[in-house]
């Protein structure tokens, strides 16, 4: 049944409950459908108007007594004279913009102060913060297709949205192809990936989620997430790091405008000349390592980074397997969720076999500290390490999902492991036994033997066959830092 | 009634008479059937009169009336929505907001329709007008046309589609000239 037919059936009282429901979903999500609906209903009203004053040219055929609309009103108006006037209610005709651009980062389309009306936008790169007419802060990250239908409704075909909704904008709604999120005064995110289910993540407050196809309304509160799929939706793990929050925008914008990206590119170019470089993954060229992951925006507008979302997601890397490495530096930018997972893998060489002395596992643990484990390495007797492996001291995950820089150096001869967080030395650990590092087939974001999925994005992962100095790591962080 | 009250009453009726088709069409776009539109319209008229003293003279009557109509429709929906097949308040409110802003275009459509119904064959127009009589019984109208009820509705949908297309063409013509 086409839309036209559906509307006619509804207007003639012929539509079944199911048809009404279907029509409703179409109207809710498609502005053009509402326009057609309005046109046809308008036509219906105009026909009724004509018919009221119409007299059959054929005598006797018009059996019905003629009525005009006006007498109703005389009567009604006269009756109303005796009624009390109660309450106030006023009408606000609003030709104003639905939203205004507060900040555009790396987008050529959206400049600060730009007024957004009911137009569809495709955003290939960048991150933009909008303020709606009622004061909701809405950050949209590319790649995204969206349209503000009005100040309170955002239609998101793909992309990521983080919204911070004050009481004045309560009811702000994000509509996706498979369902919608209605805000009840809160902070929340909606992710509509290119492939896969749209998801709602509630950071604070309450949101009503509803799948369009037979979905019940589902109330979500702090820290809950939900997928909007056909039929009943399903609970998901919260992924706060998947969203760029409004309060993250100023620092991102400041870094970009200060030319931070070119500093980062220069630092990477220099590193590529380093004869000890084993691997440098910035994910910018079209040939990506194999694996199961999503590509999202990296630290810079239009740059790319893999994201690990579902159980089993991983990226394969086979590098540095031709010999062992007496010295090693591992470094990466990561944007991770604070999850209760036991281990999240940054870099795991395949297996964990006794004959593979020195094989490397670089992990984030449940308490959000980093671990560097080398097979058959041992701790010094009386070591302060609680869990039998060298671990960093400071948790590497900030309260909210943000980009952080993690690094670790290893020197087999000096038997020394040194951890760094955001360019700063964190802690070192001396080993009793220290084998040269053994690399080769490995996974980023997971382990081949058990699920150790990392939840979040990874950017600029570096394997270097020497130990970087404190200053070098500081410089690496400074050059690549997306915040200012 | 005092002379001032009479004056106000007349002013009200002049405004209402002028804008009634637009307000009625607006309500029609928000409720399922023409009969529903009639019901709601009566209540709207009462409220308009009740609140007319608050209406600022010189302001536009139509947006003000639309606002009140919208409010009435939503409370009507809340009453009827439970036992009737109606679109949700959310969708209706959305249409209310959008079509209020689109009234200029919709009014042109309604005017253009008169030209278009003139173009119908007399038999067809006759049948159509019969179907649109207040309180028309579709079964009866269908029977006089020699069609089944289902067949009649299909015919009605076809005619409305034709008229909608004609309206589009008329408006395009106006825009071009």
From TrEMBL, chain A:
| Listed SUPFAM superfamilies | Concanavalin A-like lectins/glucanases
Domain of life, per UniProt, equals Bacteria
The record, for SMART domains, names: LamGL (SM00560)
**Membrane-spanning segments:** 73-91
Which parts of the sequence belong to the LamG-like jellyroll fold domain?
326-471
InterPro entries documented for this protein: ConA-like_dom_sf, FecR, Ferrdict_sens_TM, LamG-like
Keyword list (alphabetical) reads: Disulfide bond, Membrane, Signal, Transmembrane, Transmembrane helix
UniProt-listed Pfam families: FecR, Laminin_G_3
Write down what this protein is called: LamG-like jellyroll fold domain-containing protein
Automatic annotation (TrEMBL), chain B:
To which protein family does this belong? Belongs to the sigma-70 factor family. ECF subfamily.
**Alphabetical UniProt keywords:** Sigma factor, Transcription, Transcription regulation
InterPro entries named in the record: RNA_pol_sigma-70-like, RNA_pol_sigma-70_dom, RNA_pol_sigma70_ECF_RHOBA, RNA_pol_sigma70_r2, RNA_pol_sigma_r2, RNA_pol_sigma_r3/r4-like, WH-like_DNA-bd_sf
Q: Where is the RNA polymerase sigma-70 region domain?
A: 17-82
Return the protein name. Sigma-70 family RNA polymerase sigma factor
Coiled-coil regions in this chain?
Answer: none
Q: Which organism is it from?
A: Prosthecobacter algae
> What Pfam families does the database record attribute to this sequence?
Sigma70_r2
Tell me where on the tree of life, at the top rank, the source sits.
Bacteria
PANTHER family documented for this protein: RNA POLYMERASE ECF-TYPE SIGMA FACTO, RNA POLYMERASE SIGMA FACTOR
